[in-house]
From TrEMBL:
Similarity remark: Belongs to the peroxiredoxin family. Prx5 subfamily.
GO biological processes: cell redox homeostasis; cellular response to oxidative stress; hydrogen peroxide catabolic process
PANTHER family: PEROXIREDOXIN (PTHR10430), PEROXIREDOXIN-2A-RELATED (PTHR10430:SF8)
Active site: C48 (cysteine sulfenic acid (-soh) intermediate)
Keyword Nucleotide-binding: no
Transmembrane segments: none
Name of this chain's protein: Glutaredoxin-dependent peroxiredoxin
Enzyme Commission identifier(s): 1.11.1.25
Organism: Genlisea aurea
Length: 159
């Protein structure tokens, strides 16, 4: 995926505020909106849990004030893991945790990360995409296990 591309559609899963399992198309959530889609290699992993997700939660108000209507956290984990992980972030009101259980959406983006040698299988590269009415306007994709360009500060600079 790169700047100028239309973000692909896919069906991802999440638990709503009533703890009901839902499936939703990415396009149905972000069509005609400005959105941030960010992905992490795995729920409950150190950088993801201590830096990446907390940064987007803490800066969500600023992102919203600059016109971002949806903030989506995507990971190649099942929806039950994503639900449990989301509940560890007290005070989160704006970041939705979406499960790409089989990694099909990640594959459609071309952002797979092979962590088989670490016992984690195929996961997602860490990234942050700014999307405006389904068109990618910013594509901050990390190399390897880095966390240098995909945080909320980088998205805020682009807004």
């Amino acid at each position: 995926i790169s700047v100028g591309d239309v973000i692909p559609d896919a069906t991802l899963s999440y638990f709503d505020e009533n703890d009901d399992l839902k499936t939703v198309s990415v396009h149905s959530i972000i069509a005609a909106k400005k959105a941030v889609l960010f992905a992490v290699p795995g729920a409950f992993t150190p950088t993801c849990s201590l830096k990446h997700v907390p940064g987007f939660i803490e800066r969500s108000g600023e992102l919203k004030s600059k016109g971002v209507e949806e903030i989506l956290c995507i990971s190649v984990n099942d929806p039950f893991v994503m639900k449990a992980w989301s509940k560890t972030f007290a005070g989160n009101e704006h970041v939705k945790f979406l499960a790409d259980g089989s990694g099909l959406y990640t594959k459609s983006l071309g952002l797979q990360l092979d962590l088989t040698d670490k016992g984690l299988g195929i996961r997602s590269k860490r990234y942050a995409l700014l999307v405006d009415d389904l068109k990618v306007t910013v594509a901050n994709i990390e190399a390897g296990g880095e966390f240098t360009v995909s945080g909320p500060d980088d998205i805020l600079k682009a807004l």
